[in-house]
Amino acid sequence: MKNSETAGEKDDLVVENNQVLSALLEEAIQPLPLDEVLGNCLDILLTLSWLSLLPKAGIFLTRQNPFGEEELELVAERNLGEPIKTLCSKVAFGHCLCGRAAMSKKSVHASCVDERHDITFDGIKPHGHYNIPILSRGRAVGVLVFYLPHGTEKYDEGVRFLERVADTLALVITLNLQAAELSEKVTELDYQKLALDEHAIVSITDVKGNMTYANDKFCFISGFPLEELIGSNHRLLKSDEHSLEFYKELWGTISKGRVWHGEIKNRQKLGGYYWVAATIVPFLNSKGKPFQYVAIRTDITAEKQKELELRKASEIADSANQAKSEFLATMSHEIRTPMTGVMGFADLLLEDGLDENSREKVYRIKESTRALLRIINDILDMSKLDAGKVEIEYLDFHLPALISDVLALFSEKRGDKRAKLLNLITELSDNFPTTVNSDPTRLRQVLINLVGNAMKFTESGSVTIRVKLIEADTSAPKLHFAIEDTGIGIKSDVLDDLFSEFTQADASITRRFEGTGLGLSICKKLVTLMDGEIGVESIYRKGSTFWFTLPYIVAMSEIEEPGTKTKDVFHYTAKRSLNILVVDDNGLNQQIITAIIGGFGHTYDIADHGMQAVEMHKLGDYDLILMDIRMPVMSGPDATRLIRQMDGEKNSIPIIALTADAMDEHKKGYLEAGMNDVATKPIERSALAIVMNEVLGEEINVPSTTSEEEKIIALSVDPAKEQETQRAVDDFLKQIGADADD
């Protein structure tokens, strides 16, 4: 207050100043752009009568230039001339009076245009300045500039009031910027809500589950009008699909402030149902506790309906596959059981000193039985492949030895007469790998089938196996196998269907060469399972080339080439006699099995069913049990489970399943029941001898050589697998009239 002012004038000034400050704060809440708000503030300030201000003023705000440096930008002005507005549109910190005020964060007064006026121009009128920094949290966010008449001295009380004004303007600027930012966010949220409402089913509930909001899509899909939903509990939509635990888990999650995701089946007003994929988001208060839940859902009713249909179709398919498997298992059992009798008694006849003519007839009986067995095995293999129950087992093995093994099996059975007409040739490329990682059993099966076919349809000339490594320099090298023959060839119009089930090139082939037409289809499915490809090229009456590729996977271990060994394929002798319990309900099977093990040199007792076997084992002293599977009173697996529950050493007796059921998945069940291994009917002497040795962990049954003609030379492979492949080879060679006696 100037000295000449009276007390009454002072009171009037206080009232005026407070009114000005209040008016400035009122501007802060106006929904206007900041430059308009600040311009209105200048209009209010220029009404102050006691500061001797010229009717000219401006407000600068701090901005960053493209170089990241702070500078002042003129955002609001009143009555500044055009030169000033242009020259002072942007002012660097420390430059001119306003820049000095921003840099020092202190008010700067000038009574005239002095040397501190860095910005000047011709014709500038004399004047003075108040430059008041606008500070917020210790930072200059702008400068308030007033013009004074030339020669006006600094008025300290006036400067203090203007600094209060600057503080108020800092609040005005902050509130306006916050309001603008909030308005942008609200607008953004409105757009997000609009987009969400257009896409999703949205509802909001309080912490008790009472609905406070639901969008149009929610009302449409549920069938409830909005007035019925608002205030109602979300239980209104509850269906009978979900358990109490499901809802406990949901509420337990969101009540702890965590987001819940899941699929829910809800009830419609008119009794229908719909499925939604839901995300429920808890909104938390300042204490971290939920105060409402926002649920965002997507209609997945159509997807769930398709899922249900697919599940039903899958269940029907699984049921059909199960029925087929059970039928095939039953047929396998019913066919193999009499075959066991035929094969067994044929073997017994061969030991009776028959003359050569009678022995030949017995061999023909065995050949016919094995041909029937091969048909059964093909059908079982195809069933397992169709049901997806064949698994590929990747092992490191010696590939050239496997190929030589396959050829040796056929070569040994050709006989001298056919060997002169048909050459078996192997051609391995120079880059051909010695060891690989793949499934040797399935590869052997494919090669035996293709080589067997080539020999079957080639009376003279050659059958050649060509193997090479292709695409060796790429990231996906492959092994390429080709089986080329000079046989009858295939007509071009049937090549495309050659790998289909029950397909042969000509109906007359079945009559002339026999076979089911399943072999090539099995090969294709096996090669596909091993991530390979298979195909054929053929010229009718000149020959065919069947080829297939497999991924080349490098072996991780060193595999030495197996040596050779001599083994007897028919006669075995026990190094020490075992006491064996034979369990079978079929009298013929009992007679055959006991004849085989008795021929080895073992003693035995017989049980007619599983319950009798359990009782006999409790009282007897046996080294081994040969257990049939399907029996009256008690099955083999059930009897095995009871035996495994006995006390002491009784529960650890080795048990071998003897079964006419050749399905692999059923064999797995026998092992899970506690059986040690499985021997498949019809019982082969060598197979039974080998599995007995493996189960007992010692060479109990050893080969006994009867004549040079019954010896064969074979590579050292798994004996059980070798027996299986040998029988397959026999079938092929018998069909083309070639045997060791030719």
In what range is the share of β-strand residues? 15-25%
Helix tally? 20
Helix/strand structural class: alpha+beta
Helix content: 40-55%
Count the E strands.
27
Q: What descriptors fit this protein?
A:
20 helices, alpha+beta
What is this structure, in a nutshell?
With 742 residues, this protein is an alpha+beta fold.
What does this structure look like?
By secondary structure, this protein is of the alpha+beta class. It is 44% helix and 23% strand. The protein contains 20 helices and 27 strands. The strands form seven sheets. Strands 3-2-1-6-5-4 form a six-stranded antiparallel beta sheet, sandwiched between helices. Strands 8-7-11-10-9 form a five-stranded antiparallel beta sheet, sandwiched between helices. Strands 13-15-16-18-17 form a five-stranded mixed beta sheet. Helix 1 (7-28) runs parallel beside helix 5 and helix 12 (440-456) runs parallel beside helix 20. The protein is elongated and about 155 Å long. The model is unreliable at 505-513, 565-569, 706-726 and 731-742 (pLDDT under 50).
List the helices and strands and how they pair.
Elements: H1 7-28, H2 34-45, E1 57-64, E2 70-78, H3 82-87, E3 90-92, H4 96-104, E4 108-110, E5 128-136, E6 139-148, H5 156-199, E7 201-206, E8 211-214, H6 216-222, H7 226-229, H8 244-254, E9 260-267, E10 273-284, E11 290-299, H9 301-350, H10 356-386, E12 395-398, H11 399-421, E13 422-428, E14 435-438, H12 440-456, E15 461-470, E16 478-485, H13 507-513, H14 519-529, E17 533-539, E18 543-551, E19 564-568, E20 572-574, E21 579-583, H15 587-600, E22 603-607, H16 610-619, E23 624-628, H17 636-644, E24 655-659, H18 664-672, E25 677-680, H19 685-696, E26 701-703, E27 711-715, H20 719-735
Parallel strand pairs: 13-15, 21-22, 21-23, 23-24, 24-25
Antiparallel strand pairs: 1-2, 1-6, 2-3, 4-5, 5-6, 7-8, 7-11, 9-10, 10-11, 12-14, 15-16, 16-18, 17-18, 19-27, 20-26
Helix pairs in contact: 1-2, 1-5, 2-5, 9-10, 9-15, 10-14, 10-20, 11-12, 11-20, 12-14, 12-20, 16-17
